[in-house]
Design a protein that fits this description.
By secondary structure, this protein is mostly beta strands. The chain has 2 domains: 7-112, no CATH class; 123-219, Immunoglobulins (Immunoglobulin-like, Sandwich), CATH 2.60.40.10. It contains 2 helices and 16 strands. The strands form 5 sheets. Strands 3-4-5-6 form a 4-stranded antiparallel sheet, with no helix packed on it. The protein is elongated.
Length: 271
Amino acid sequence: MHGGRCLVAKSGGQDLTPLRGSPDFSPITTRVVPGEENILIAFERPVRSAAAGQGLAVLSIGVGNQAQWRELHVPALGTIGLVGTLEFTQENDHSVLWVGGTEGLLRLDYDAIAPVRKPDAPIVRLDTAHSSTTEEKGEAAFLFEDHRISFQVFAGNYSRSKDWQFQFRLATDRGEWSAPSPRRTFEFTNLSEGDYRFEVRAVNFAGLASEPSSFAFRVLPPWYPAPAGRTPVTPPAWLPPASGSSGSVSGGAASARANWSSRWRAGPRNW
């Protein structure tokens, strides 16, 4: 292990190459798990990670130097100071793990230690108090002009989720996730017309991500019918002139205007 990365060597200790699938971490100490080819690692997370602190994880190396990383759920690890030693003993056919730290000692039934599980999917809701009014009953469709769309994210059980962070993405298609952040409210303005999907997922201290939750909405075209009391919008400039105006309308041009008119009257489902 070097510089927060796992390296594997061929026989003889030559040709060190990175071990694929292992996260960045700073190893403190390691121990081979009795009766297995797996390695138990006490480590510190990088400062830039979602949650600082120590952890215990089991590293397995598969075919093609593919790593499998399984972090263990040991809440008491933070009570013994900086971990310095890992030792195994056998008691009544059970593996007992001793974890020594600068401020204490833990005795753990190794076979009973559960892995850290990924977070539950968060709940995402439209914040109607801080969003524009939707224009279609039962649908999240917003006028193009001066729209504001706000979301709130809820993570459920506070004791489990208080250290979670969140990633989001907003696009008309799949995009890149944002960097993890504790932020739980999101607001969007000045979006182009089109269909959107706001997606958010939770990330825990081990870097495990939940399944994403999503909210679909639509920003209507600029020429969509204005509500009562507002000035109606004019047809887009790219449409051909109406009958009776300068120039003639025939063939494909007339069809284009008729198509726009029918869709304009029908509402946002046709855009």
